[in-house]
């Protein structure tokens, strides 16, 4: 009897010990799995954190790049109007006026080549009469240009068979005018109509009011340097473009004119020569208010 009781006690002890060992092992296994899960989660979170910072850096870089590409983007005329009375001229809209025979097509060609690089748009207005426009023609052209400006949100440049349009006379904001002149003693300009003193003073007044820069064909390096400083969003890189277009042989017509011929031409074209010298001095002095 005692022997059977002893065997029963021993079996109970063995069963209890086995149960305790089994329970401990299960707890250890669960702890190991929980630790593995935690470690995996921590690593995953670590990668997610790295991705987050990488995404933020990428976003910042992308934003910086976008800003760099769009730093010259300007509001439309309609948006400017909503903010108050816009200035008389728009610095981000250029109009190249072409003086016949003065080489303004060279400026147009440079603008056409730079528009993709500098992220602006150059628009050639439809060809028209090179003579004086009637009031109705002027108004229609002003409305056409204004309509284009309203639809665009990037810097624009225009050129066309237009000598000058007074946008303010029709209640519209004017573009900023630029142009190019040529030595009046150059044979290529001799067929142009002559001007009087009144026309000279009127031309000066228009230049001072509407033309920050009037370039000189014989001083293209100085002209482009001035334009690059004043309007980098249009003319950055213009000098490099001009180097590829630069004529191999410089025009030396003045040196080939006989002294007597040159003197007579200066007398005949004294008004034009005076205006040309004034424009030249204004450009070289680097001021838009040189009277």
Automatic annotation (TrEMBL):
Keywords, comma-separated and alphabetical: Glycoprotein, Golgi apparatus, Membrane, Signal, Signal-anchor, Transferase, Transmembrane, Transmembrane helix
Record's signal peptide: 1-22
GO cellular component: Golgi membrane
GO molecular function, one term: sulfotransferase activity
Membrane topology category: Single-pass type II membrane protein
Subcellular location as annotated: Golgi apparatus membrane
Main localization of the protein described in the UniProt heading: Golgi
PANTHER family in UniProt: HEPARAN SULFATE 2-O-SULFOTRANSFERASE (PTHR12129), URONYL 2-SULFOTRANSFERASE (PTHR12129:SF15)
Listed name of the protein: Sulfotransferase domain-containing protein
Species lineage: Eukaryota, Metazoa, Ecdysozoa, Arthropoda, Hexapoda
């Amino acid at each position: 009897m005692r022997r059977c009781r002893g065997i029963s006690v021993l079996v109970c002890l063995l069963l209890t010990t086995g149960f305790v060992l089994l329970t401990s092992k299960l707890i250890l296994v669960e702890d190991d799995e929980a630790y593995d899960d935690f470690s995996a989660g921590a690593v995953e979170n670590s990668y997610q954190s790295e991705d987050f910072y990488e995404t933020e850096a990428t976003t910042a870089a992308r934003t910086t790049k976008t800003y760099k590409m769009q730093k010259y983007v300007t509001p439309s005329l309609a948006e400017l109007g909503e903010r108050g009375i816009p200035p008389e001229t728009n610095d981000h809209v250029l109009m190249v006026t072409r003086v016949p025979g003065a080489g303004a097509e060279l400026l147009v060609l440079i603008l056409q080549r730079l528009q993709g690089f500098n992220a602006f748009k150059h628009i050639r207005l439809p060809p028209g009469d090179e003579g004086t426009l009637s009031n109705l023609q002027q108004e229609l052209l002003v409305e056409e240009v204004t309509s284009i400006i309203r639809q665009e949100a990037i810097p624009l440049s225009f050129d066309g068979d237009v000598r000058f349009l007074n946008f303010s006379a029709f209640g519209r904001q004017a573009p900023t005018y630029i142009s190019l002149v040529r030595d009046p003693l150059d044979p290529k300009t001799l067929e142009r109509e002559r001007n009087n003193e009144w026309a000279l003073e009127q031309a000066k007044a228009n230049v001072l009011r509407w033309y920050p820069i009037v370039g000189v064909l014989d001083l293209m390096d100085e002209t482009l340097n001035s334009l690059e400083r004043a309007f980098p969003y249009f003319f950055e890189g213009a000098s490099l473009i001009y180097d590829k277009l630069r004529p191999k042989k410089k025009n030396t017509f003045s040196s080939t004119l006989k002294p007597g011929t040159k003197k007579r031409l200066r007398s005949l074209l004294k008004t034009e020569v005076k205006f040309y010298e004034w424009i030249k001095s204004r450009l070289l002095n680097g001021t838009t208010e040189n009277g």
